[in-house]
Amino acid sequence: MCGIVGYIGKEKKAEKVVLEGLYRLEYRGYDSAGLAYVENNEVKVVRAKGAVKGLDDKCQSIQPQDLAIGHTRWATHGKPSEENAHPHLSFKRELALVHNGIIENYKYLKELLRDEGYIFS
Description:
The chain is an alpha+beta fold.
């Protein structure tokens, strides 16, 4: 099962809180990790294949944030890769999404959203 950690607040650096939480979940054995945050009204995502340390290394230049969400992935669908790591971004880069487990009705949802004009990569 995947691990999800989020933080909103001004007392601590959100990206650091989320990374610390992801490290605590790492004992469960994951193949990738990612972090999303908002900077200058833009959703930014950092993802890495492998251990949380790889993600942490990529996050060193992030300026302190008030909001972040992170995810560790245990590949149940798709190969372990940076591309398959969460968070996933919406086409217009307005939304970052993480989820836990398998979305069994994904084909139906994807069809429904395509009919409404959404584009998938």
